[in-house]
Design brief:
By secondary structure, this protein is mainly alpha-helical. The chain is built from six helices and two strands.
Length: 115
């Protein structure tokens, strides 16, 4: 996978991060790691080849429905893809994301109450 990318500084001197660019890089990296073509994944995901290409290049925003179709076509849990994107953005922002889940999010009773 390619290194996280950032645009020139935005407000406050921070690097501006484009979620769509990081997401596209993660999806492309996963597809290539599987040795699959864009055509194969677009067919399995039932997404046009051109549109998937634009998503991988960070030129288009993926809807949640489309993203689920693509991650399923890649055989990847959506949460893993989003975690990878989150980790890449954290590197750009220079922050550390904890590897543990807070206790309040691990209790089944709490999760039921959140729905």
């Amino acid at each position: 996978m390619s290194a996280p990318s950032a645009l020139p500084s935005g407000k406050g001197g921070r690097a501006m991060v484009l979620f769509r660019q990081e997401l596209g890089d993660v999806l492309r990296g996963a597809r290539r790691a599987q040795g699959r073509t864009l055509r194969e994944v677009s067919s399995d995901a039932r997404v046009s080849l051109g549109y998937l290409s634009e998503i991988e290049r960070g030129q288009k925003e993926a809807s949640s429905e489309l993203l689920i179709s693509v991650t399923e076509a890649l055989g990847l849990p959506l949460s893993c893809v989003l975690r990878e994107v989150s980790d890449r953005i954290a590197v750009i922002e220079g922050v550390t994301v904890p590897d543990t889940v807070p206790d309040e999010l691990t209790s089944p009773a709490e999760l039921v109450g959140m729905r």
